[in-house]
Amino acid sequence: MTTKHSFFSRLSGSSVSDDPFDSFDEELPTVPIPARSDLRRASEMAMTASRQAVRPAPLEEVSAEAEGQLPVDVHQTGNDIVIRAFVAGVRPDELSISISRDMVEIEGSRMERDKIAGPDYFTQELFWGSFSRVISLPQEIDVDAATASAKDGLLTITLPKLDKARQTKLRVKAG
Question: Does the predicted TM-score (pTM) go above 0.90?
Answer without folding.
Answer: no
